[in-house]
Specification:
Helix content is 40%, strand content 23%. Strands 2-1-3-8-7-9-10 form a seven-stranded mixed sheet, sandwiched between helices. Strand 7 and strand 8 form a beta hairpin. It comes from Streptomyces boetiae.
Length: 235
């Protein structure tokens, strides 16, 4: 066999082996990411999730503009997980999550289910009521107060827990404003791989997120302020 032909055959064989190895590596990596997402969210492809939507704090029949966009981003996240969603209104939905991963969206003033989740499962977390003072709708976690500055700064809770007697977790996403709600959903969608690698426990956590520069950056400048898990779940 001529040396040139032998070199060509060796090159082809090497390319085929490299391509096959790359394909196997990519497939294994994709499978690993899928397992990681399933563990984090408790959702396997094809499963149905429960999304409980809040309403405008002043009107139970109206959903705020930013909350609509937050729900749309939740839908995009579930589509990436290969899951489907059933949407319920906080004002009318009652009962457990029925073996489905639940996403409960909006603060306690706009979502009755959020208020119940906080009272029953996160006793270390509270929101001050609406008002005109500087501490209006401040977020209280333990002895720490996180204030809201209209159109500039907001905070949100991103928590995960499984209620007693239920088989699937609840993701509680509640902010001081609709912009903060939307920022928290944005953070969950784009940073859950990092959380999977860094959180001490994926079964139960409570994170405080900060959404800043709202007038300039809307909901997108959202950062993790602190992990408040120990405080949030302690009476």
């Amino acid at each position: 066999m001529p040396a040139v032909l032998a070199n060509i055959l060796v090159g082809l064989a090497t390319s085929l082996i490299s391509a096959a190895s790359l394909w196997l590596w990519q497939r294994a990596a994709a499978a690993g990411r899928a397992r990681s997402r399933t563990r984090f969210f408790g959702v396997a492809p094809g499963q149905n999730c429960l999304v409980v939507m809040g309403h405008h704090h002043g009107s139970p029949d109206v959903v705020s503009h930013h909350d609509v966009h937050a729900v749309l981003e939740l839908g995009a996240l579930l589509n990436e997980l290969g899951a489907t969603a059933s949407f319920e209104s906080a004002g009318t939905f009652r009962g457990g999550n029925g073996g489905r991963t639940e996403f409960c969206l909006s603060g306690p003033n706009a979502n009755e289910r959020t208020a119940a989740h906080l009272a029953h499962h996160l006793p270390g977390v509270a929101f001050r009521p609406y008002g005109d003072g500087p501490d209006a709708i401040a977020l209280l976690v333990g002895g720490q107060e996180h204030r809201w500055v209209r159109d500039e700064l907001g905070h949100a809770i991103l928590a995960k827990f499984t209620p007693p007697g239920q088989q699937a977790p609840v993701f509680l996403i509640c902010g001081q404003s609709t912009e903060a709600n939307r920022g928290a959903v944005h953070y969950l969608r784009h940073h859950h791989p990092h959380l999977t690698r860094t959180l001490p426990s994926l079964d139960r956590f409570c994170l405080i997120l900060r959404v800043s520069g709202i007038t300039t950056y809307a909901h997108e400048q959202v950062t993790l302020l602190t992990d408040a898990t120990e405080t949030a779940f302690t009476p």
